[in-house]
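Narrative progress, year one. The postdoctoral researcher (J.K.) led the effort to move from monomer predictions toward full complexes, under supervision of the PI. The following entry was the first complex the group processed end to end, covering 448 residues in total.
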Amino acid sequence: MEITHRALAEVVVVAPTGRLDYVAAGDFERTLMPLLEPAAGSGAGVVVDLGGVDYISSVGLRVLMIATKAVRGRGARFAVAVLQPTVKEILAISRFNGVVEIFPTVDEALSAISPAAAAIYRAER
Amino acid sequence: MKRVRFWGTRGSLPVSLTAPQLRERLVAALHAARGRALDSDAAIGAFVDGLDFKIAGTFGGHTSCVEIETGEQEYVLCDLGSGLRPFGQAAFAKHGPAAPQSYHVFVSHVHWDHIMGLPFFVPAYVPGNRIVVYGGHAALESALRRQMEPPSFPVPFDEFKAQFEFVHLAPGVRHEVAGMTVTALLQRHAGDSYGYRFEKNGRTVVYTTDSEHTLARADEVQAFVDFFRNADLVVFDAMYSLADAISVKADWGHSSNTFGVELCQLAGAAHLCLFHHEPASSDAVIAKLLEDTLRLEAITRTSRPLRVTAAYDGLDIAFPDQR
């Protein structure tokens, strides 16, 4: 699994790719967690772009749960975006669609969290 | 290993259909019958069999009690929930008081819903019967005795006429019982619980209920994958959704349909049976849980298909005779 991340204004966008299965979830957690503190501290939040993820396991969903709690606990927002059909169904069946904020696109997620971050994102495209 | 029969499948507390719920089903069934030619018993039977389970059936019912028919004379049971009462009635009706029987009972833990059937277990009052209770808890015998002490129950444990034996099973050790090899696994639950893996002649049944999976440690996940490895049937605690199990109901000691599918897929198990249903769930909710779980299995399948069912009181899962 490859995981990239970048800061857009006060939002961090994290983009894992591949299968977020119970083996890869450990790498995802180790990469994601250090990014949460500065992003949450800024008062804006974190967006996880799941467009490159074709499967997410329970262990991967647990990482999203932990991240959501950590970020929300700091008064910031945590969202996922660009769900592939299988991942979207997994989130619905596991009832995670009521736990994390879900957006169709990264642009829409950024717009909801930080207009400044959204503007940078659009300018880059 | 011939078959597995479910006498009690509900978690935490027995439930039953109410009169209004039954009426609602009858109305739905009669609506579905409109325009049908139901002019023979066979036609009526076929029509009823074709109705949705949530209309024509019910998930029940009694708390945990599962029978494993091993092919030997002796009975093997998992847990002593309220489903033990109808099992005991059936066994007594079959054998009567004059033909002593042996009952081997594997107790997951001694929370009330898993032992409440014992005071109503008719064979326990029959002289000559032998009841061997297996478990990992040091307090196994005292817990069974205590629930029958005043003021909780009017008949003390010592009124039982059957011969009782209590056997402590160390987890991770293979024990030979009733012609099977049985291995226990320590599970995460308030006061601990134990899962059981039963093996005989190449057939494997895993009974794992009241088991919480925090998903925080890879070695814990792997221990369950190994425990489920190539099982023909896994009876699995699917009381909550995954989201509930690891958030608002974390530390409540139960698991989810989602993680049941994953563990069985990783282990190469053949059949996942959702068990220990949430008592607040209606039949429609459990039917939807099953539908969702079937879909999850289909969209995440990477190798051979995993059969998925939802347990109900009266479910009988027979194994083919080839082994």
